[in-house]
Amino acid sequence: MSSEMPPTAKKVPSERVHHGDTVVDPYAWLTAKDDPDTIAYLEAENAYTQQMTAHLKPLQETIFQEIKGRTLETDLSVPTRKGDWWYYSRTEEGKQYGIQCRLVAEGETPPELKAGEPLPGEQIMLDGNELAGESDFFSLGTSSVSPDGTLLAYSVNFTGDERFTLKIKNLATGETLPDEIPGIFYGGAWSADGSTFFYTTVDEAWRPYRVYRHTVGTPASEDVLVHEEQDERFWIGVGLTRSERYLVLSAGSKITSEIRILEADDPTGGFRVVRPRETGVEYGIDHAGDRFLVLHNKNAENFELATAPIDDPGTWTPLIGHREDTRLLDVDAFEGHTVVHFRRDGLTGVRILPADGEPYEIPMPEPIYDVAPSGNPEFVTGRLRLGYTSMVTPPSVYDYDLRTRELILLKRKPVLGGYDPADYEQFREWATAPDGTRVPISIAVRKGTERPAPTVLYGYGSYEISVDPSFSVARLSLLDRGFVFAIAHIRGGGEMGRRWYEDGKFQKKKNTFTDFVACAEHLRAGGWSSGVVARGGSAGGLLMGAVANLAPETFAGVVAEVPFVDALNTILDPSLPLTVIEWDEWGDPLHEADVYHYMKSYSPYENVDDRVYPPILAITSLNDTRVLYHEPAKWIARLRDTARGGPFLLKTEMGAGHGGRSGRYDSWREEAFVLSWVLDTAKATA
């Protein structure tokens, strides 16, 4: 490696007093995004990281070519029936972005797919490559076809800051209408007749808080504000029920929901509240003929499914009662049946409730997997579309025939280069946390791999988000080099139900970190691992920083992507994007002393000490609006100043957002960079 010295971040300490305690932040100056010194420092860090990883260039290129070589670059998705059309997307070799298409529909069976070929008679609705042009970044925020199939509302962004410009295209003529609305958020919904489009905008804290009504063919200046959410803890969104009978305006904090509905054929009418918000009660609805289906957690920690009359949607009658062992995730209403997506024993499942028969669950072909309803826009249908994957089975699309109860495989994502699932194995292990809790671990390995082996352990553990066992083409570059890959299903996530989440937030957040360390130690003690490289992003990046402080000797390396490592300072500042919303997840350290002291005891930036730390790679984006770039920048600076060991590297994408680089080839190169660092780090510490 190069002996070049890393950049030195100047110290300009700032001090704030909270609850009698002084917070000293020596690198607060890095929060000034527009300061030339900040940009110069980030660019110097990039140059240093490039220098320190220059020897990995050949390996990076090899891994990139492996990812590219295993991917069918010209491919298309399984078409989904909606009205008179089959809708699908496809990719073309050499092009960064997808192409959205449709084809006149006949029957329920999708048209036959031919690898590498567009379908005859297709209509191209949107070509992401044409929209992106020469821009280094491109993102599509929404793409919504009107109920009659004639208009397409879509929104674009070229910086990564998640503020989009809405446009409307006439699909019959191919003409892009004069309608153009800047500064909108994701999503939106059409009225039943396609005359009106509802969309959301964000406030200065990047919180979607307003819903507007736009009449097609009128200037944006005439758009009507239909709802504004005053409570800074709540986000809002707008959608359309599958039946297309009701517009749904949802408001939600981390712990509370409130929904308003409006008949979709009356777009200028007023939304009515389904049930007034009650702190701690979450609910969602779907329309099912003469009633609503309501999924809620009122006196039901793992949620229950209820029905409600159309004219009295706030009165709920149980349909599927609460169970301690089963977390109900979602409900989908169709004309002749209801579909419930659930979670039990750390795995997902699908339950069918026929209108005229007994409920039953769809059996899955593997012991470890992830399954979910996917792409079912038609209210009247005899089939259910499912997405399925496991750690050895590539993403697969099934139709489930509700008459014959047969799973029909429509497509399995091609993996080129001779991939055979039989060459790989997946396992479920259980680690024991310090408090005795059993924590599931999903493991993938190539058959014949000599163990113990170098291991990548991935974790997240926040917001009740579950990291389910799934397939990755890029991961094969690790497995084929003798690595073990494992997922730690730690508390704070949702893998084992709502209680699993509750036991990893607020004053129990440290369970998330000790669970992860216990999983790493289990892999070592169980003969799986010769050394563990930890990887996580966003809130999983907070996990990475916390476990590096908690047990640096346990890990051979740490990859922290867009990491939330300056948690205390961020959550103390309500002027920052999303902070107030986050108080329902982490607590409110600004007003509550016990929360402040607890967060300070685990926030990664606050707890770096002079022990020997493993090598750490932090990756961030300058335009990230969710975890601001300065968090990892400050963290790496403090590690260099305080800790021993390393090296500590920072890589900043200077023109991207929270999701990193936008084009698929660019993202493959980014992944190749990370994997080459992991391979090199594991080898150096073996």
From TrEMBL:
Keywords: Hydrolase, Protease, Serine protease. Transmembrane segments: none annotated. Residues 6-411 form the Peptidase S9A N-terminal domain. Gene3D superfamilies: alpha/beta hydrolase, Prolyl oligopeptidase, N-terminal domain. It comes from the Bacteria. The keyword Hydrolase applies. Residues 469-683 form the Peptidase S9 prolyl oligopeptidase catalytic domain. Belongs to the peptidase S9A family. This is S9 family peptidase. It comes from Planomonospora corallina.
